[in-house]
């Protein structure tokens, strides 16, 4: 099945059975919320470029954040946050917001150990996207997603529709439906952290994460472990390879480590390529996304048992770097992905 039919910001995909569900917390006061739609076609600087309104540890009233052509304003910190993708969930957990979460959904792989205990206190609404009925039963006052597919009629509903129900929304700046508004940089990740922290009145937490990640990336860039290497980012798929392309998480990671993405000329974050293109590129190394619905080992097995693909340089040398899928997508783990790929490429023996 083509991988394009599985990516969350395009369509639904399979997720392994979720961990035990817990009942939503009760007794949390709903925050007063106001959602203001801003047309992406407005003249002037894009709304997606505006910084969050809060910088201190308190919560100025109101707080507005503008991304993907929509401005969201809250008059008090939300009390019933629901996250609809793993990237959003991990940002919330990194900011220590689990006590304000009324639900979560759609994991791609295991939650890192550092957030596991906090995650286990949050009600799991669905293995994939929840139905509208299930979502509304959690009584959310703030919905947060990594991918635009969450805010469609088939899932949570449009952002305008949700706003009319008093439910504020936030979409990662890396996941804007309009690719002209979508940002693709580590700064966009930190902007997202800052926005969410501002909405919830915990700005210093975002600043601390940003400072740590900036130090990590400076070290990765200085090492330049991927210098001179042509790398294939193999996400999923066998009939048609679904690959990391020139405008998204995989490209950011490969840029950080100094490697060249063999599909950097293709638009978007991920695209269907062809095996003929992969063979022509003959990469020096292959980064393999590891997810519950498509493991790295299954991809290695496919490459090594195909009579043509097993002639690729990277396959012959077993020049593989395995990365959890969540470290390749918008969110707080993207810097971890850069650190992991840097270490993996640096350890390749023999060096291509």
From TrEMBL:
Gene3D superfamilies: Nitrogenase molybdenum iron protein domain
Keyword Chloroplast: no
Annotated Fe/B12 periplasmic-binding domain residues: 80-352
PROSITE patterns, per database record: FE_B12_PBP (PS50983)
Key words of the record: Lipoprotein
InterPro entries per the UniProt record, alphabetical: ABC_Transporter_SBP (IPR050902), ABC_transptr_periplasmic_BD (IPR002491)
Family according to the record: Belongs to the bacterial solute-binding protein 8 family.
Protein name: Lipoprotein
């Amino acid at each position: 099945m083509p991988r394009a039919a599985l990516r969350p910001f395009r369509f639904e995909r399979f997720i392994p059975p979720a961990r035990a569900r817990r009942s939503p917390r009760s007794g949390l006061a709903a925050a007063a919320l106001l959602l203001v739609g801003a047309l992406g076609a407005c003249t002037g600087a894009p709304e997606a470029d505006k910084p969050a309104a809060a910088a201190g540890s308190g919560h100025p009233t109101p707080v507005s954040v503008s991304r993907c052509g929509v401005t969201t304003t809250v008059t008090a910190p939300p009390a019933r946050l629901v996250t609809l993708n793993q990237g959003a969930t991990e940002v919330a957990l990194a900011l220590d917001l689990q006590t304000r979460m009324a639900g979560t959904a759609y994991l791609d792989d295991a939650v890192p150990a550092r957030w596991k205990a906090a995650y286990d206190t949050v009600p799991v609404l669905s293995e994939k996207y929840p139905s509208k009925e299930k979502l509304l039963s959690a009584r959310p006052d703030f919905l947060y997603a990594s991918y635009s597919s969450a805010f469609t009629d088939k899932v949570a509903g449009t952002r305008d529709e949700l706003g009319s129900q008093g439910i504020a929304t936030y979409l990662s700046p890396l996941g804007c439906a309009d690719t002209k508004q979508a940002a693709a940089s580590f700064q966009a990740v930190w902007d997202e952290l800052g926005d969410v922290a501002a909405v919830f009145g915990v700005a210093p937490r975002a600043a601390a994460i940003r400072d740590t990640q900036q130090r990590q990336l400076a070290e990765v860039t200085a090492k330049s472990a991927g210098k001179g290497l042509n790398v294939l980012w193999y996400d999923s798929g066998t009939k048609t390879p679904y690959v990391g392309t020139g405008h998204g998480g995989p490209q950011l990671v490969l840029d950080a480590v100094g490697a060249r993405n063999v599909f950097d000329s293709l638009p978007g974050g991920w695209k269907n390529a062809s095996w003929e293109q992969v063979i022509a590129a003959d990469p020096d190394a292959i980064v393999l996304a590891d997810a519950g619905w498509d493991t790295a080992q299954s991809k290695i097995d496919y490459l090594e048992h195909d009579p043509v693909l097993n002639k690729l340089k990277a396959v012959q040398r077993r020049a593989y770097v395995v990365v959890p899928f969540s470290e390749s997508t918008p969110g707080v783990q993207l810097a971890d992905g850069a650190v992991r790929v840097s270490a993996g490429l640096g350890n390749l023996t023999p060096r291509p």
